Amino acid sequence: MKVQRQIWGHIPLLHITPDQNEQSELPTVVFFHGHMSAKEHNLHYAYQLAEKGLRVILPDAHLHGERSEGLDDVQISFRFWEIVLTSIEELAFLHEELHKQKLVSGEVGVGGTSMGGITTMGAMTVYPWIQAAAVMMGAGNYVELAQAQMTQYESRGFQLPISEEEREKMLKTLAMFDSVKHQSKFKSRPIYFWHGEQDVTVPFESTYRLFKELKIQYEAVPEKIVFRREREAGHAVSRAGMLEATEWFAKHLAK
Question: Where is the Peptidase S9 prolyl oligopeptidase catalytic domain (predicted)?
Fold first, then answer.
C-alpha cells in the first residue's frame, strides 16, 4: 500500500493505492471523515480497501485538518451544514480530477463516518455516477436534523448567528439534498448502513426509518441495501462494521 499526501485544486488529501498500482486505472472510493476529525483518521478504511485492490481518496473537509482556520468547536459546529454542502460540491471536482488523471476504472464509490456519512447521503441525491455507498452512523434527513440542531443550540442558551430569513433559506437549500424528500434518486444503487443503537450524536431511529422507506424501492434487488445495527454501540463504528463496509465496496466496485 502506498500513501501519498497531495493537494488537488485547493483540497488537501491522502491518496492511497495498492502497491505498484498508483498510475493504474482502479475502482476508487472517496471517503469523508467526521466532524472535528481529519483525513488521517480514516486510514484504517483505506488500508482495507487498498488491500482489496481499490484506490482511496481521503480529503480534508472545509475547516478541518490542514484546512483549519483556528476556529473553536462551537464556531465550527455552527458552520456544520456549510461544511457538508462544501464537501458535496467538492466531490464533483474530485470525481472530475480522477477521470482527468485517468486513475479510475468504471465508476466511483463514496462513503464516510458521521458527518462524512451525512455528506454521502446528500451526494447520493445529486450524483447519479456514484456506484456504491457506505454510510457509517450518518443520516439523510437534512432538514429534520438541522432543525433539531438549532433547537438544541438555542436550548443551551446559544444565540444562532443567523436571521430568521437566513434560517429559512438554509432549510430550503438543505431540502434540495434531503434523502427523505428525494428517495427516488437512489435508483437502487448499492448502499450499506452501519449505526449503533445507542448513538446520541446522530440518532439511530431517524436513519433506520429512512432505510426502511428506501427498502421499498429495492424490492427487486434487496441485497443491494443493507442496514447493520449494533445494539450496544454508540457513536463509534465497530471493527466489524468497518470490515463489512470495505467488503461492500470491494464487492460492488472491484472488477
Answer: 90-253
Q: What is the mean pLDDT of residues 24-31?
A: 95
- 30 — phi, psi (to 5°)? -100, 125
The pair phi, psi for residue 169, each rounded to 5°, is: -65, -40
CB 64 within 8 A of CB 36: yes
Write out pLDDT tens, residues 184-236. 999 999 999 999 999 999 999 999 999 999 999 999 999 999 999 999 999 99
R_g (Cα) of the chain, nearest Å: 18
The whole-angstrom distance between residue 35's C-alpha and the CA centroid of its chain comes to 11
Nearest-angstrom CA–CA distance, 171 and 194? 26
Grid coordinates representing 142 are 437534512
Domain count, the chain: 1
Can you tell me the mean pLDDT for 29-53? 97
The CATH number of whichever domain residue 32 belongs to comes to 3.40.50.1820
- Which residue segment(s) compose the domain that 46 sits in? 2-253
Distance CA 40, CA 166 (A): 34
Q: Count Cβ atoms below 10 Å from residue 17 Cβ, excluding itself.
A: 23
pTM above 0.85, yes or no: yes
